[in-house]
Amino acid sequence: MVVKYLFLILYDIVDRRLFSIDRCIFMVEQSKPMRPPLSGTAKIIRYTPWLVHFNTGACNGCDIEVLAALTPLYDPERFGIKLAPSIRHGDILVVTGAVTKKAGERLKRLYEQMPNPKFVIAVGACAIDGGVFHNAYNVLAGVDKVIPVDMYIPGCPARPEAILDGIVKLLKKLEEL
Amino acid sequence: MGKPKILKLILKNFVSKPATLHYPLKEYRVIKFPYEHTLIEEDARGRHYADLTKCTGCSLCKLDCPADAIEMIPIPEGYEAPKINPRKIYPVVNYFRCVFCYRCVTICPVNAYITTSEYRLASPESIDSSQLSLSTLKKASGG
Amino acid sequence: MGAKKVIEVPYVVELPVGPQHPALHEPLLLKAYAEGEEIVKVEINTGYNHRGIEKLAERNNFYRNIFICGRVCGICNTVHANCYTRALEYLLGVEPNNRAKYLRVVAMEFERIHSHMLINAIMAEILGFDSLFMNMMLDRERIMKAKEILTGNRVIGDYMMVGGVRRDVDEVKRDKLIKLLKQLRPRVEYYKKLFIEDETILKRLVDTGLLSRVNATKYSFVGPVARGSNVRIDVRASDKYDAYGDIPWNVITYKEGDSWARMMVRWDETLEAIDMCIYALEHLPSDGNPVPDERRLPRKFPEGESYARVEAQRGELTYYVMSTGGVNPYRVKIRTPSFLNVIHSAILYPGYSIADLPVIFVSLDPCIACMERVAVVDVDEGRRRLVRLKDLAKGVY
User: Fold this and answer.
1) Which residue in chain B has the smallest CA separation from A151?
2) How far apart, in whole angstroms, are the C-alpha atoms of residue C267 and residue C252?
3) What is the pTM of this model?
């Protein structure tokens, strides 16, 4: 009985004093998920990949360029690309933004919820390496510290033509599997 | 139920030429389609690299880069360094961290940066400007 | 014995509109408590976007901060850079020449046009009106091309520097810009007429999220949200910085106070901005070079503090810069308009159904990337605590 009360008090202290941000680092640094092995049938995705977009603490510049890449002037529907309504339907995860500690936990959870075969594209200087914010205290600089990445698209922000160019290069790489 | 006022616009778009720029269709499929390159301005900010015949190795570009994307690396053997560069170092831009603000271009005291408008830089491995900068130098004779 | 009274206890369902959502472009956790179809309470949980910019600004020198502060928010980056640069100019006692002032106004008004067209297109997308969304984004590409001709990049301009701007405009570019603006104007008038007359839009936007004039001043809303409720505040008219005193323009207000009035304020401001840009480009003064030589600017700043404010697309944005002699600033404080608008917005939701939640949220034009900086320093014990916005927002409703 005493032990149970001691445990509750200890949990209460830990829950209030230890900031939830530090608990997030603990969970994120525990284990980086491995890249899943690709079988030969994975290349059927190259005819119509569906994108899921996640913003992990960006300035919104790369997000409006990803949104503009879905509009009629650049028309990704020629390649069969569309924005998927939920993460369980997605093939390619497009990540923007310098990964903050609170959003990094959500990103890892999202990656584990995606079904195989899955690919990750990091768009913008902040997602690749931290960009301008690589020294800040709340930022784990770079998406590849949390999940494995397949293609990087630099630029601040990356033009919609460059985003389409990066997706096409990834799909071409799949043809050689 | 009324018809939407946008019906006239939809019919007009239906019969006119498509508004899409067919980039990068030609490289991806084998169909011979007349594709247009997107009309980018010539002085849009794209890939830039240092011209080593003018660089003096003063490191001002490294000190003032807001993203810390420039490193000073010693010029390797096999290239002859110009006399104005006593320390024999040259700047290498890491394009993955560069934000293309061109602070390095405007602060250089001898205007040693060459600017282009190339933006197709997607790649799975890290890219930097060392090969482009070294191609402006002549190789050392003998050896 | 039959039952005499039947007491119904409604149960409340919590709906998280989570950080990853195909409709949201920013990470934000909106917990809506709904009883049946009607919303009872909304809790806003932010903190996913906090990058620690004010602390980062203390480690870099004054000129690197111009580029860092320009990346606080990508949609309003020119106004952030302009406010910081003007705070530095008040500290140094430097004033740019008239041509630089006109060019700065042109860059900021371009940004206003593109941001207002973007939020209206997102409103059409949320209503389900996809063809209107696609058509508006196609016309918005003209203004992005104009921004690329003027500043060199489509979204993040990096155009401001202490003492002027970083690029000049010659005759060929000026004619191209005026031609693009004149092609854009009839399209914007067509979309404004569509928002006034189309039945789909009217049925969903009119009378949702009513904000009365009393509440708008009591909870200090700023920007088009306040101007849609008949409160006439605008920093460009009060301060007349940077050449807004020379160019003729009007302040727009609407008196209805619902989501429709807020979107109409934005369309009228777009038309005003196009006219302002055409006037400024036709009457550009030619008194010297607007580009200062960046190599001769002073590295060490004198001691002092300065304060500047600017009218961003969402409201009033203020910067405070303090320096103690030296190369780095001692403190930079940013107060953004979305900070006020989004926190106090919990009063607008109750009483409406779940389908009205995204309409009200988008009509406030939230920019979560701008608003994430809350830090509480406990002076007695010297500890630093980060306060979640949820705890602050609970006190309001």
Assistant:
1) B124
2) 10
3) 0.87
